[in-house]
Amino acid sequence: MSVPATASPPPPAMAPWALTAVMCAALTLALAGSFAFPALLPGLVAAWGLSNTDAGWIAGVYFAGYAAAVAVLVTLTDRVDARRVFLGGALATALAMAGFAWLAQGFWSALLFRLLAGAGLAGTYMPGLRALIDRYDGPGQGRALSFYTATFSLGMALSFLLAGEVGARLGWRAAFWAAAGASALALPLVALALRPAAPAADPDVASLFDLRPVLRNRPAMGYVLAYAVHAWELMGMRSWLVAFLAFVLALDGGGASWPAPTTVATIGGVLATAASIGGQEAAARWGRRRVLAVLMGASAVTSMAMGFSALASYAVAAAAALVYMLVTLADSAALTAGTVAMAAPGRRGATLAVHSLIGFAGGALGPVVMGAVLDAAGGGASVTAWVLGFGSLGLAVALGPVFLYLLGGRRAPTGSS
Question: How does pLDDT run across 402-413, given as a tens digit for each residue?
Fold first, then answer.
């Protein structure tokens, strides 16, 4: 059943800036447990006797759960109010975090609850973006989009901070209970602040879940594939950074007590939020593909160099990690904005679904491949292993500019938004 394309959303319940702030806050809360496992990884590896490959699977399956659910949930926003999808996703996230806190006892149980949490993320991240842009009408929509996507980094920062601080004081189970509570707070925030709105859909779209037209949209797919290798690097870096810093701290004699590895990850996540917004502003001013080629090239070089910082000191490695997070996140909002700009009329939800599906499939592979590289190179107690592990992320993201120039058109399809 199709919905008339002339249907327009009702007037927003609040000013556009307030709407953007609410959705950014809701996303931040929903992401509160997203990186709890990587933040607590060194302790859980020891407690459960995990290999680096095992740990990589637990970290990466979160994004696999996202990829498995996102095509259905985000495409559904072409027919169902994205607000409803977001609320369901936030509830699923809170329940998955609570399940991890209550029942996780080792590799398989942790894998299950991380998979379910990833499916919850699929119901919040991009559906939240869709809920925002369906209610935000005006020239500032692109900037609102960049603020929202940049908030992903802020949510990751909160996740590292919450897990690190609560886990250090009350244990890892308490950290996951805290994440469950934070995710649950997103429910009343969105339910009370956003009015229901019917999405405007193209009456000529015959099948809701037919993604083939999106896959044939070469300019959009250029951004999608570039986003996939960006996510490969980003999620690999985020999943292993705390463990790397803990390794360098031990190598340095444990003399530096502050900032702790989780604090470094938190500070970097907050700073990277501004970097993501800045990258989108630069892309809008100087050309998206040109700016993205520079940013992704710089990210590849930084990845290749990151492991060598262990040869210096913990202070140098912490400073390098902050730079690394800034560079890695700088292209995030611009890549998503590029996909949205290239989406065909009536296919915005389906295009975002493909963007998320393929993108987070890359995000799922990054932590696993890096963990396997660490194991193959002798484990996480070797500088050489970390150099090769971070190098694997750099090789992946270096493909981003290639995809953009091979597939990316200079203009969006006729009539695209």
Answer: 999 998 655 444
